[in-house]
Amino acid sequence: MPLGVLWLGLSLTLLGVLQIQAQDSTPNLIPAPPLLKAPLQPNFQDDQFQGKWYVVGLAGNAFSKEEQGKFKMYSTTYELKGDHSYNVTSILLKDQQCDYFIRTFVPTSQPGEFSLGNIKAYPELQSYTVRVVATNYNQFAMVFFKALTQKQENFKITLYGRTKELPPERKENFISFVKSLGLTDDHILFPVPIDKCIDG
Fold first, then answer.
1. Which pLDDT does position 11 carry in this prediction?
2. Number of CB atoms found within 10 A of residue 5's CB
3. In whole angstroms, what is the distance from residue 103 CA to residue 111 CA?
4. What contacts 24+ positions apart, CB below 8 Å, involve 173-176?
5. Per residue in 13-48, pLDDT tens?
6. Is the sign of the CA dihedral 158, 182, 70, 7 positive or negative?
7. pTM of the model
């Protein structure tokens, strides 16, 4: 099974998309960087970050370039609640059906950093951290995710866009940041844009 599918399995199991069982052998992954390597957006504005984002780019220590083309674009909507947590809804196309997956991101003491709400519902997870690294709120955002299980540490970086296309410099900045975390071109994917499910 390709490493990217394993990370996708871990990531999207949280979304409820894939139910991939853990394998006996732990893959040899690039170590997850310390959280300090994923800086937080200064003066993070949670009300401006909310709303719909398209997943324009993905990178992670278990992704592989050979999987490019298999990943379809999906959307994620952040809905701010009164306690400053987000209801996070992702809409994905799976087997020609629209799947909706909802979870909660709970703020930590650092603005722009979140943990997964109701983590006890995912017994394989020891921790799940989300950090908004950079955003201008109306065009793009880069978000760092780190998941710790008993067997391994996975991390990914998502490039969000308010639209399905971003200027080349945004993708270049994304690639530079990803490589600063020890990943290579082989770990970077740009999902195929689609209309079904994610528009509307």
1. 52
2. 17
3. 19
4. 173/134, 173/142, 174/57, 174/59, 174/142
5. 443 332 232 333 345 789 999 999 999 999 999 999
6. negative
7. 0.87
